[in-house]
Amino acid sequence: MDDPKTFTPIVAEYNSGQIEDGRLLFARPVTFMKSAVSLETLPPMGLTEVCFAGRSNVGKSTLINALTNQSGLARASNTPGRTQELNYFSAQDRLYLVDLPGYGYAKAPKHKIAAWNKLTRAFLRGRATLRRVFVLVDSRHGLMPVDQELMNMLDETAVTYQVVLTKADKLKKGQLARVHAETAKKLAKRPAAFPVVALTSADKGLGMPELRAEIASLALPIEAL
Length: 225
Fold this sequence. Notes:
Blueprint lengths: L15 H10 L5 E6 L12 E6 L5 H9 L17 E6 L3 E5 L10 H17 L3 E9 L6 H13 L3 E6 L6 H15 L10 E2 L8 H9 L9
Parallel strand pairs: 2-4, 2-5, 5-6, 6-7
Antiparallel strand pairs: 1-3, 3-4
Helix pairs in contact: 1-6
Keywords: Cell cycle, Cell division, GTP-binding, Magnesium, Metal-binding, Nucleotide-binding, Septation
Family: Belongs to the TRAFAC class TrmE-Era-EngA-EngB-Septin-like GTPase superfamily. EngB GTPase family.
Protein name: Probable GTP-binding protein EngB
C-alpha cells in the first residue's frame, strides 16, 4: 500500500481554451433562481446541474461567490447552518449551480436539521440531471467522518463527486501537499469519486480558473442553446 507521504495525486491540466470556456461561463452575472424547501419545489429537471456540499462553515457560500465573481450571490456567514434550503442559481442558462445546506452541525432545532438532511439526501439520490457533486473539505482538517458518510451514500447511488479542498492558503506548502496526497489516496478506491482533488482558496483566487474550467466542461455547450 502506498504511503500517503509518497502518494502522487492526479493533477488536472487545463489548456488555454478550457480556461477561457470557464471564464466565459461566469463572465456574465449568475442569477439566483429559487430556494427549494422540498422535492416538490425543485425546478423541473432540464439543464445540467452541479451542486456544492460540505460541512457547515467549510466556506461553500464564499467559494460560490468567488467562483462567480459576485460577492453577494450566496449568503456567506460565520454562523454554521446559515444555508437552510437548496438554493438554485443559473449560469447563462447553460448550467444550474445548487448550494446545499451544510451538514455535520447547525445552530438550529434538531427537527429542522433532520428535515434539511432528508431533503439533501433525497435530492442527491434522485436527481437525474445532477452531473457532479463538489464536496468541499477544509484543507486544515482534511476528510472528516461526516464527509465520508456522505461519500458512502454517493458511492452507493453512483453519483459522481469531486473533493474540493478549501482555504488552501491557510497551510504551508508542505502541509498542503501532504493533505492533498492523503485526501487523494483515500478517494482512490471509491467508485464514484472523481480522481482529481481540487485545491482552492476563495480569498486568494487559488484554483478558481481551473474549477471554472471543470464546471464549464459539464455545462450545456453554447452551440446547443
